[in-house]
């Protein structure tokens, strides 16, 4: 019997204070998981919605999660991320480094810390990284974000190759254009927003809750044989 239940599992979701991270945390909790909402700002609202607890972590330090897995964690969702926008000819080293540190370097070392702890206790686990449409496309005026999200997709596949046989499933979700803080500038530009909508077969911007179901699936026993996948949840954008 196929099971999507996460009863008895503990999940740590980074960047869980709002948007996609919060929606995933709520979805995992609804499926039965105990949720640890991790972020650099307050996750009090997410804790109230999930009945879980909070862990303050600032991934501006890519090694911030080195001690986050002292207690068993079964599911890791690497959602924390930032974005910087500027023409490539004007893009600064500081903006490049800040984005790469949070979006890629921290993802790797958080995965590493999770896997070390899981393997040390002889257990498997699930890692779900949040990639992007810009894991496949170039985008405009977001060079470090695009590079980091290409890296997340590649890193997901590499870690799956190394850890699948050890019982750790590593997969990613690539959200489409979702109504979050990261897309606020795009939605505020009427021409750009309409151009995006015109290309989405589903005919609407995605909602953060649209990502939660994919996360529950990848975290559940139903996805036991799914390794190294990057699942697009994009309203059909990449099919266009």
Automatic annotation (TrEMBL):
Q: Which InterPro entries match?
A: 2-deoxy-D-gluc_3_DH (IPR011286), NAD(P)-bd_dom_sf (IPR036291), Sc_DH/Rdtase_CS (IPR020904), SDR_fam (IPR002347)
**Keyword Oxidoreductase on this protein?**
yes
**Single GO molecular function:** NAD binding
The record, for SUPFAM superfamilies, names:
NAD(P)-binding Rossmann-fold domains (SSF51735)
PROSITE patterns noted in UniProt? ADH_SHORT
Q: Does the keyword Glycosyltransferase apply?
A: no
| Top-level taxon of the source organism | Bacteria
Key words, A-Z? Oxidoreductase
Q: Mind telling me which Pfam families this protein's record contains? A: adh_short_C2 (PF13561)
Family under the similarity heading: Belongs to the short-chain dehydrogenases/reductases (SDR) family.
- The name under which this protein is listed is 2-deoxy-D-gluconate 3-dehydrogenase
Native organism is: Cereibacter changlensis
């Amino acid at each position: 019997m196929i099971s999507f239940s996460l009863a008895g599992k503990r999940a740590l979701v980074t960047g869980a204070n709002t948007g996609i991270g919060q929606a995933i945390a709520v979805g995992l909790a609804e499926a039965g998981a105990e949720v640890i909402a991790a972020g650099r700002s307050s996750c009090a609202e997410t804790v109230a919605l999930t009945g879980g607890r909070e862990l303050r972590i600032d991934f501006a330090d890519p090694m911030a999660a080195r001690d986050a897995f002292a207690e068993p964690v079964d599911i890791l969702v690497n959602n924390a991320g930032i974005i910087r926008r500027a023409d490539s000819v004007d893009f600064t080293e500081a903006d490049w480094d800040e984005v790469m540190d949070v979006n890629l370097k921290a993802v790797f070392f958080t995965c590493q810390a999770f896997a070390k702890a899981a393997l040390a206790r002889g257990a498997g686990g699930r890692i779900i990284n949040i990639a992007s449409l810009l894991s496949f496309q170039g985008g405009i005026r977001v060079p470090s974000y695009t590079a980091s999200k290409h890296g997340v997709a590649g890193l997901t596949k590499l870690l799956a190759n190394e850890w699948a046989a050890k019982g750790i499933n590593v997969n990613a979700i690539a959200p489409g254009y979702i109504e979050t803080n990261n897309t606020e500038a795009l939605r505020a530009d009427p021409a750009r927003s309409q151009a995006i909508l015109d290309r989405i077969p589903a005919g609407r911007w995605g909602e953060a809750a649209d990502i939660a179901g994919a996360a529950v699936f990848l975290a559940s026993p139903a996805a036991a044989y799914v390794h190294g996948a990057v699942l697009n949840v994009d309203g059909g954008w990449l099919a266009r």
